[in-house]
Amino acid sequence: MLNSENLPTDKVLAWSKLLEYDFFRIYSHHLILFAPPKAQSPKNIKENNSRRMPEFRKHLYTVEIIDFIMEQISNGEKTKLEVMRDYRIPKTTLYKWLEKYNNRKES
After folding, report:
1. Does residue 67 carry a pLDDT above 50?
2. N or C: which end of the chain has fewer CB within 10 A?
3. CA dist list (Å): 52 to 29, 45, 46, 47, 48
4. CB 82 within 8 A of CB 69
5. This prediction's pTM
6. What's the average model confidence in pLDDT over 40-64?
């Protein structure tokens, strides 16, 4: 299974239960971080609202994702500008995270 390119979800679910670890969370984190940007015209917005399709929203960053991003900045792997560009995080959001992370680190 380790060398296989794909794993059926029932196998992943079985391993998640056996090891008591949510492997699906890794996948959902990846979706949130690397989701393609939306290019919606007013017509597309009306169509989406009428279908009531679920959408991933930017404010769904989990603590693990925020810690991962803060670690990249503190280790010098990425600059603040690279993080904002690569993950499409607004500047104000990133600076709020930096302030909160620094306060948490000092405590």
Report:
1. yes
2. C
3. 23, 10, 10, 9, 6
4. no
5. 0.49
6. 55
40 pLDDT band, cuts 50/70/90, is: very low
Distance between CA 94 and CA 59 in Å, rounded? 12
Work out the average pLDDT over 73-96. Answer: 89
Sign of the torsion angle spanned by Cα atoms 50, 52, 56, 58: positive
How far apart CA 33 and CA 58 sit, in angstroms, is: 9
| DSSP for the chain, written as a single string | -TT-S---HHHHHHHHHHHT--HHHHHHHHHHHHPPPP---HHHHHHHHHHT-----GGG--HHHHHHHHHHHHTTSS-HHHHHHHHT--HHHHHHHHHHHHHHHH-
At residue 36, the pLDDT reads: 56
Q: Are 65 and 26 in contact (CB under 8 A)?
A: no
Provide the pLDDT for residue 37: 55
